[in-house]
Structure formats: C-alpha cells, structure tokens
Amino acid sequence: QVQLVESGGGLVQAGGSLRLSCAASGGIVRINLMGWYRQAPGNQREWVATIIRGGTTNYADSAKGRFTISRDNAKNTMYLQMSNLKPEDTAVYYCNANIVTRDLGETAAWGQGTQVTVSS
After folding, report:
1. pLDDT tens digit string along 24-35?
2. Nearest in space to 82 (alpha carbons), one of 60, 99, 97, 98
3. Cα 47 to the center of its chain, rounded Å
4. Contact 90, 18 (CB under 8 A)
5. Alpha carbon of 115 to those of 25, 27, 28: distances in Å?
6. How far apart are the C-alpha atoms of 92 and 9, rounded to whole Å?
7. Count of beta carbons in the 10 Å neighbourhood of residue 88
C-alpha cells in the first residue's frame, strides 16, 4: 500500500526557515511528478511547487525566490526548503506524488499533511 508521510512542520517566527520532508513507501517502482500543496483555514488547497523525476521544478508566484523543492529518487523522498517565511505562509502543507507500483500502475497519492505556523 502506497503511503506518503510528511514531516518537518512547526511554529516559526516571520523571517525564519523550515524544511519539510515527504517520504514515500509501499511497493514503489517509480515516482514521477511530485509536488507540494497547502491549505490555510477557510481557503481551498493551493499548489506551491512541483518537481519531475529529472529535477525540473515549477513554483507558484508566492513561493518563487523563497522556497526550494528538491527530491532524492534513491530515497523516494521530496523536500521543501522554505525561507523568509511570512504569516501568510501559515497552512497545512501536503505532498502529492504520481507513483507507479506493480499492482496498480500509476496512481496519485497524498500525504496526511504537516502544519506550518508562522508568527508575526
């Protein structure tokens, strides 16, 4: 059974940094597109950044210049380095991945989320 587990969230002051991790497990043959999303209270889930297997990245305007997405294919793990954090970055951060398994082929999986709170 495919599973994504996020970690690294927490409480940080404005201007601070956090590094989120997303570890995938469960009969994985290959992971294609991976991405980070976030959802603030009362808002819809929004896209933050994505990275393909080869390493090409894309960022939402809100993340450009402050966030860096990366991945370690050997470890089936993705990261989000966040710096110069702002109160408006406060949200639950979710990882998403398109995962290929022998049993199911390619499916989209979501993690359970990790809370990031930025105080002013």
Report:
1. 999 999 999 999
2. 60
3. 9
4. no
5. 21, 27, 26
6. 9
7. 11
